[in-house]
C-alpha cells in the first residue's frame, strides 16, 4: 500500500476477507500465516478478475496500492519460513 496510515492494513485485511481472500495457507497439514500484505484466493476466476477484487478492497479503504496476481492451475508451490497459526 502506498503512503499507508495507521490502521490501514487492518481495514485492508477486513476488506480482502469480505471478498474471499485468506491470509493463511495449509502446509503439510499445518495452517501457516502468509507474509504481511500477502493474500491467497482459490476459485475458477481469471487473474484479471482477482486483480479487480483486490483493487475493490483497496478502493474501499480509500488508499492506493500496487497489486500483483499470479494464476496457477496446480497448487504446487514451494514455501519456507512461514509461521504456524497458534
From TrEMBL:
This is BON domain-containing protein.
Amino acid at each position: 500500500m502506498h503512503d499507508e496510515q495507521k490502521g490501514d492494513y487492518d481495514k485492508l485485511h477486513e476488506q480482502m476477507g469480505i471478498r474471499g481472500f485468506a491470509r493463511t495457507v495449509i502446509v503439510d497439514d499445518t495452517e501457516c500465516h502468509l507474509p504481511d500484505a500477502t493474500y491467497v484466493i482459490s476459485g475458477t476466476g481469471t487473474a484479471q478478475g482477482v486483480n479487480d477484487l483486490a483493487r475493490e478492497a483497496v478502493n474501499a479503504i480509500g488508499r492506493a496500492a500496487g497489486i500483483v496476481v499470479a494464476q496457477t492451475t496446480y497448487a504446487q508451490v514451494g514455501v519456507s519460513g512461514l509461521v504456524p497459526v497458534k
